[in-house]
Protein backbone atom coordinates (compact mmCIF):
# COMPACT_ATOMS: atom_id res chain seq x y z
CA UNK A 1 0.00 0.00 0.00
CA UNK A 2 1.29 3.46 -0.88
CA UNK A 3 2.51 5.61 2.01
CA UNK A 4 1.85 8.83 0.08
CA UNK A 5 -1.26 9.78 2.05
CA UNK A 6 0.57 9.49 5.38
CA UNK A 7 3.99 10.79 4.39
CA UNK A 8 4.86 13.86 6.53
CA UNK A 9 6.42 15.51 3.47
CA UNK A 10 2.90 15.53 2.04
CA UNK A 11 0.68 15.85 5.08
CA UNK A 12 2.63 18.72 6.67
CA UNK A 13 2.08 20.91 3.60
CA UNK A 14 -1.59 20.00 3.24
CA UNK A 15 -2.15 20.62 6.95
CA UNK A 16 -0.47 24.01 6.62
CA UNK A 17 -2.72 24.93 3.69
CA UNK A 18 -5.70 24.02 5.85
CA UNK A 19 -4.41 26.24 8.66
CA UNK A 20 -3.92 29.22 6.33
CA UNK A 21 -7.38 28.49 4.83
CA UNK A 22 -7.44 31.22 2.16
CA UNK A 23 -4.73 30.72 -0.46
CA UNK A 24 -3.92 33.71 -2.66
CA UNK A 25 -3.93 32.68 -6.32
CA UNK A 26 -1.25 34.74 -8.03
CA UNK A 27 -0.64 35.72 -11.64
CA UNK A 28 2.55 37.74 -11.87
CA UNK A 29 4.37 38.98 -14.95
CA UNK A 30 7.36 40.76 -13.41
CA UNK A 31 9.97 38.77 -11.44
CA UNK A 32 11.11 41.96 -9.72
CA UNK A 33 7.75 42.04 -7.93
CA UNK A 34 7.93 38.46 -6.63
CA UNK A 35 9.69 39.17 -3.34
CA UNK A 36 7.75 42.31 -2.33
CA UNK A 37 4.54 40.49 -3.18
CA UNK A 38 5.56 37.52 -1.04
CA UNK A 39 6.37 39.84 1.85
CA UNK A 40 2.98 41.56 1.51
CA UNK A 41 1.20 38.20 1.71
CA UNK A 42 3.11 37.24 4.84
CA UNK A 43 2.64 40.64 6.46
CA UNK A 44 -1.08 40.55 5.74
CA UNK A 45 -1.51 37.21 7.46
CA UNK A 46 -1.92 34.72 4.60
CA UNK A 47 1.58 33.25 4.19
CA UNK A 48 0.90 31.14 1.11
CA UNK A 49 0.77 31.59 -2.65
CA UNK A 50 -0.36 29.52 -5.59
CA UNK A 51 1.71 31.05 -8.39
CA UNK A 52 -0.01 30.19 -11.65
CA UNK A 53 1.90 29.09 -14.72
CA UNK A 54 0.07 31.63 -16.85
CA UNK A 55 3.08 33.86 -17.44
CA UNK A 56 6.56 33.05 -18.76
CA UNK A 57 8.22 34.14 -15.52
CA UNK A 58 6.21 31.93 -13.16
CA UNK A 59 9.12 29.61 -12.34
CA UNK A 60 11.49 32.51 -11.72
CA UNK A 61 8.95 34.15 -9.42
CA UNK A 62 8.53 30.92 -7.46
CA UNK A 63 12.30 30.60 -7.15
CA UNK A 64 12.70 34.14 -5.83
CA UNK A 65 9.84 33.77 -3.36
CA UNK A 66 11.12 30.42 -2.07
CA UNK A 67 14.69 31.64 -1.68
CA UNK A 68 14.07 35.06 -0.17
CA UNK A 69 10.83 34.64 1.80
CA UNK A 70 11.10 31.15 3.31
CA UNK A 71 8.18 31.75 5.66
CA UNK A 72 5.88 31.81 2.60
CA UNK A 73 4.44 28.44 1.56
CA UNK A 74 4.74 28.79 -2.19
CA UNK A 75 3.21 26.40 -4.69
CA UNK A 76 2.51 26.25 -8.39
CA UNK A 77 -0.88 26.46 -10.06
CA UNK A 78 -2.20 25.88 -13.58
CA UNK A 79 0.13 22.89 -13.82
CA UNK A 80 -1.01 20.83 -16.80
CA UNK A 81 1.73 18.23 -17.35
CA UNK A 82 4.82 16.52 -15.98
CA UNK A 83 7.40 18.91 -17.51
CA UNK A 84 5.69 21.88 -15.85
CA UNK A 85 5.51 19.91 -12.61
CA UNK A 86 9.24 19.29 -12.75
CA UNK A 87 9.98 22.92 -13.60
CA UNK A 88 7.88 24.12 -10.67
CA UNK A 89 9.52 21.74 -8.21
CA UNK A 90 13.01 22.64 -9.40
CA UNK A 91 12.13 26.30 -8.80
CA UNK A 92 11.14 25.54 -5.21
CA UNK A 93 7.38 24.95 -5.30
CA UNK A 94 6.17 23.08 -2.22
CA UNK A 95 2.86 21.93 -3.73
CA UNK A 96 1.23 21.49 -7.13
CA UNK A 97 -2.28 22.52 -8.16
CA UNK A 98 -3.97 21.87 -11.49
CA UNK A 99 -7.30 22.99 -12.96
CA UNK A 100 -8.12 19.44 -14.07
CA UNK A 101 -7.17 15.85 -13.41
CA UNK A 102 -3.77 15.67 -15.13
CA UNK A 103 -3.21 12.01 -14.34
CA UNK A 104 0.43 11.87 -15.44
CA UNK A 105 1.30 14.84 -13.25
CA UNK A 106 -0.61 13.42 -10.29
CA UNK A 107 1.14 10.06 -10.66
CA UNK A 108 4.52 11.79 -10.81
CA UNK A 109 3.77 13.74 -7.64
CA UNK A 110 2.53 10.66 -5.79
CA UNK A 111 5.64 8.72 -6.82
CA UNK A 112 7.87 11.56 -5.54
CA UNK A 113 5.85 12.42 -2.39
CA UNK A 114 4.93 15.88 -3.63
CA UNK A 115 1.67 17.38 -2.34
CA UNK A 116 -0.66 17.64 -5.34
CA UNK A 117 -4.22 18.97 -5.55
CA UNK A 118 -5.80 18.07 -8.90
CA UNK A 119 -8.89 19.85 -10.14
CA UNK A 120 -12.19 18.13 -10.85
CA UNK A 121 -15.91 18.69 -10.85
CA UNK A 122 -17.54 15.25 -11.13
CA UNK A 123 -17.74 12.05 -9.07
CA UNK A 124 -16.16 10.06 -11.90
CA UNK A 125 -13.09 12.32 -11.89
CA UNK A 126 -12.96 12.06 -8.11
CA UNK A 127 -12.94 8.26 -8.28
CA UNK A 128 -10.04 8.42 -10.73
CA UNK A 129 -8.17 10.74 -8.37
CA UNK A 130 -8.70 8.33 -5.48
CA UNK A 131 -7.32 5.47 -7.56
CA UNK A 132 -4.20 7.58 -8.15
CA UNK A 133 -3.75 7.88 -4.38
CA UNK A 134 -4.86 11.43 -3.55
CA UNK A 135 -7.59 12.44 -1.14
CA UNK A 136 -7.13 16.24 -1.35
CA UNK A 137 -8.60 17.62 -4.56
CA UNK A 138 -9.79 20.91 -6.00
CA UNK A 139 -13.39 21.67 -6.92
CA UNK A 140 -13.04 23.83 -10.01
CA UNK A 141 -14.73 25.95 -11.12
CA UNK A 142 -16.42 25.79 -7.75
CA UNK A 143 -19.36 28.12 -8.28
CA UNK A 144 -20.18 26.80 -11.75
CA UNK A 145 -19.84 23.21 -10.51
CA UNK A 146 -22.55 23.46 -7.89
CA UNK A 147 -20.83 25.28 -5.07
CA UNK A 148 -21.50 24.23 -1.50
CA UNK A 149 -24.46 22.08 -2.62
CA UNK A 150 -22.10 19.98 -4.75
CA UNK A 151 -19.68 19.67 -1.82
CA UNK A 152 -22.50 18.43 0.40
CA UNK A 153 -23.62 15.92 -2.22
CA UNK A 154 -20.13 14.52 -2.72
CA UNK A 155 -19.47 14.34 0.99
CA UNK A 156 -21.82 11.38 1.35
CA UNK A 157 -20.16 8.85 -0.96
CA UNK A 158 -16.66 10.29 -0.47
CA UNK A 159 -16.25 11.07 3.25
CA UNK A 160 -12.46 10.68 3.05
CA UNK A 161 -12.01 13.51 0.54
CA UNK A 162 -11.12 17.11 1.33
CA UNK A 163 -11.59 19.92 -1.16
CA UNK A 164 -9.78 23.09 -2.08
CA UNK A 165 -12.31 25.35 -3.80
CA UNK A 166 -11.42 27.90 -6.45
CA UNK A 167 -13.30 29.56 -9.28
CA UNK A 168 -15.83 32.20 -8.28
CA UNK A 169 -14.66 32.42 -4.67
CA UNK A 170 -14.93 35.94 -3.26
CA UNK A 171 -15.30 37.60 0.14
CA UNK A 172 -19.08 37.21 0.13
CA UNK A 173 -19.10 33.43 -0.33
CA UNK A 174 -15.71 32.33 1.05
CA UNK A 175 -17.04 31.87 4.62
CA UNK A 176 -19.76 29.47 3.40
CA UNK A 177 -17.19 27.34 1.60
CA UNK A 178 -14.83 27.34 4.57
CA UNK A 179 -17.69 26.25 6.83
CA UNK A 180 -18.27 23.11 4.75
CA UNK A 181 -16.83 20.14 6.68
CA UNK A 182 -15.08 18.67 3.62
CA UNK A 183 -13.31 21.89 2.58
CA UNK A 184 -9.72 22.33 3.70
CA UNK A 185 -9.07 25.67 2.01
CA UNK A 186 -10.23 28.05 -0.70
CA UNK A 187 -8.22 29.90 -3.30
CA UNK A 188 -8.91 33.31 -4.72
CA UNK A 189 -7.50 35.94 -7.00
CA UNK A 190 -9.31 38.75 -5.19
CA UNK A 191 -6.65 38.70 -2.46
CA UNK A 192 -3.91 39.83 -4.85
CA UNK A 193 -5.55 40.96 -8.12
CA UNK A 194 -3.31 40.75 -11.18
CA UNK A 195 -3.76 44.43 -12.03
CA UNK A 196 -2.79 45.49 -8.51
CA UNK A 197 0.25 43.21 -8.57
CA UNK A 198 1.35 44.41 -12.01
CA UNK A 199 1.12 47.99 -10.75
CA UNK A 200 3.46 47.14 -7.88
CA UNK A 201 0.87 48.30 -5.33
CA UNK A 202 1.85 46.02 -2.48
CA UNK A 203 0.29 48.22 0.19
CA UNK A 204 -3.09 47.45 -1.39
CA UNK A 205 -2.20 43.75 -1.57
CA UNK A 206 -1.36 43.72 2.12
CA UNK A 207 -4.64 45.50 2.93
CA UNK A 208 -6.67 43.03 0.86
CA UNK A 209 -4.87 40.12 2.51
CA UNK A 210 -5.62 41.48 5.97
CA UNK A 211 -9.29 41.89 5.04
CA UNK A 212 -9.40 38.35 3.67
CA UNK A 213 -7.83 36.92 6.81
CA UNK A 214 -10.74 38.26 8.88
CA UNK A 215 -13.07 35.89 7.00
CA UNK A 216 -11.41 32.89 8.62
CA UNK A 217 -13.29 31.77 11.70
Automatic annotation (TrEMBL):
Homotrimer. Its EC number is 4.1.2.14. This is 2-dehydro-3-deoxy-phosphogluconate aldolase. GO terms for molecular function: 2-dehydro-3-deoxy-phosphogluconate aldolase activity. Belongs to the KHG/KDPG aldolase family. It catalyses: 2-dehydro-3-deoxy-6-phospho-D-gluconate = D-glyceraldehyde 3-phosphate + pyruvate. Keywords: Carbohydrate metabolism, Lyase, Schiff base. It holds the Pfam family Aldolase. Pathway: Carbohydrate acid metabolism; 2-dehydro-3-deoxy-D-gluconate degradation; D-glyceraldehyde 3-phosphate and pyruvate from 2-dehydro-3-deoxy-D-gluconate: step 2/2. InterPro entries: Aldlse_KDPG_KHG, Aldolase_TIM, KDPG/KHG_AS_1, KDPG/KHG_AS_2. It comes from the Bacteria.
Amino acid sequence: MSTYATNPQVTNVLDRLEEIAIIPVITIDNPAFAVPLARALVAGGLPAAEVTFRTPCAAECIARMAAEVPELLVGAGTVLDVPTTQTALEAGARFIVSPGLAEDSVAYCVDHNVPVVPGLSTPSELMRALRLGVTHVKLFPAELSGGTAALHAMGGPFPQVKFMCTGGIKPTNAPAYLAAPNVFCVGGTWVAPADVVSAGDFATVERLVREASTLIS
